Amino acid sequence: MKKQVQYVNIDDWNRPVFKQVDAKLYYGCTEKLFPYEESEKSVLKKVKASDLCYFGERFNCEPMGSLAGDIEIIPR
Question: What is d(CA 9, CA 19) in angstroms, rounded to the nearest whole number?
């Protein structure tokens, strides 16, 4: 079963951050950066599940460098 994640916000390093729906695990993209005021709709158009890597157990974590694995982005 795929892990489901939802968009949370843009972090302090302009990275889009996503949270796993059923856990306190965060994922994000380090390659596609956005201004703080970027809309969720705009982010979801540009960021795909394959772009995400594991960030950690809290918002603004440093990326762990590992791929997110079998993941699905769902809207809020």
Answer: 10
pTM of the model: 0.92
SS3 at position 44: helix
Closest CA to 37 of 72, 9, 62: 9
Cα distances from 55 to residues 15, 19, in angstroms, run 11, 10
- Which residue is associated with the tokens 């809309």? 39
Q: Is the pLDDT of residue 50 over 80?
A: yes
Q: Which of 10, 16, 44 shows the shortest CA–CA distance to 30?
A: 16
Question: 61 pLDDT band (50/70/90 cuts)?
Answer: confident
In DSSP terms, 54 is beta-bridged to 27
How many helical (H) and strand (E) elements, i.e. helices and strands, does the chain have?
Answer: 1, 5
